[in-house]
Design goal:
Elements lengths: L5 E7 L6 E14 L2 E11 L12 E9 L11 H15 L16 H16 L6 H9 L9 H17 L8
Antiparallel strand pairs: 1-2, 2-3, 3-4
Length: 173
């Protein structure tokens, strides 16, 4: 379903104060239970209406959102997070486009998701998974990754569920 909604985003640059603007157009939105999936386009437009210096560049963006996962909280079940990670992998496919994982601070929910997927990648390569070492290594790159004890416990439960139920996908080897 293509929606006719369009908006303009303005981002002020700190180096020089120049404003960057872009148009967004939501192409599709699909909500299923705990997840929302959106496809939209992002187009560069000139900051000055009289300017003709638009790059004309248009990028297609796919957003996968875990809408029922509260800030500082955990998902309702490990199986739900595993399903979400698998959907992210499916959407990403063999694309060379960059993937951005984000939440409000970029450390709690983001940390849980990237830690679980990293553990899945290790399992698929038949390498040992040591959750505490994994988080410590990742915290060297992103401080405070995984904000709460319950989030770390959830990571461990999810990794165990992946292992017990053989949720790893050999196609990603």
């Amino acid at each position: 379903m293509k929606l006719k909604r369009s908006s303009t985003l303005s981002l002020a640059r700190t180096n020089g104060g120049r404003e960057l603007q872009s148009d967004t157009e939501v192409l599709t939105t699909q909500t299923t239970g705990d997840f929302a999936f959106r496809d939209f386009t992002l187009s560069h437009v000139p900051a000055d209406a009289s300017s003709t210096r638009s790059t004309g560049e248009v990028r297609r963006i796919t957003q996968l959102q875990y809408i029922s996962w509260p800030d500082h909280g955990i998902p309702s079940s490990p199986t739900d997070l595993i399903a979400f990670v698998r959907r992210v992998r499916e959407k990403r496919g063999n694309s060379s486009a960059p993937v951005v994982v984000h939440c409000s601070a970029g450390i709690g929910r983001t940390g849980v998701l990237i830690t679980v997927e990293t553990a899945m990648n290790l399992m698929e390569r038949r390498q040992p998974v040591r959750p505490l070492e994994l988080v410590q290594h990742m915290r060297a790159q992103r401080a405070l990754l995984i904000q709460t004890t319950s989030q770390f416990q959830f990571v461990c439960e999810t990794i165990l569920k992946v292992f017990q139920r053989d949720y790893i996908d050999q196609t990603f080897n």
